[in-house]
Amino acid sequence: MKYLLSLILVLSSIQLANANYDCSAALSDDHSVDSKSFVINEFDVESDFESNPSSFAREAVRKLYGNLDCEVSSNKDNSIVKCSEIVRGVSNSKVCYLQNDDGYFLISKDMMENINVLYNRWD
């Protein structure tokens, strides 16, 4: 019985490691780049960037993971988010910084219908 439980735990660990590796590889073009930019359509995110930028940033990164066929685990969803205007008083200059186990992301919205997500891997 102990052997069976040990085998189940090992197989579960391997599957979780593969899911994280796949996301990391997808975000970095199979580890060939340290950073990469992505564009998401604004209408694919329900949160409002102006009224709740932290929620918007989290949802945008979840959408990015979904577009890349990555699983969103709790260590990716419970991430640190900080948003601020780069130029004080200019709402269009707002950028959010989101950090999780895969790296960190800079999320901004352009004047059209795009969300720009810049991914940077951890060293």
Explain how this protein is built:
The chain has 123 residues and is of the alpha+beta class. The protein has a five-stranded antiparallel sheet with strand order 1-5-4-3-2. A hairpin with an 8-residue loop joins strand 2 and strand 3. The protein is globular, with a radius of gyration of 17 Å. The chain starts with a helix and ends with a strand.
Q: What best-fitting shape do the alpha-carbon axes yield?
A: globular
Mean pLDDT: 83
Rg on CA atoms, Å: 17 Å
Q: How are the strands of the largest sheet arranged?
A: 1-5-4-3-2
Structural class based on helices, strands and sheet pairing: alpha+beta
In short:
The protein has 123 residues and is of the alpha+beta class.
Secondary structure layout plus pairing:
Blueprint: H1 2-27, E1 35-41, H2 53-67, H3 74-77, E2 80-85, E3 94-100, E4 103-109, E5 114-121
Antiparallel strand pairs: 1-5, 2-3, 3-4, 4-5
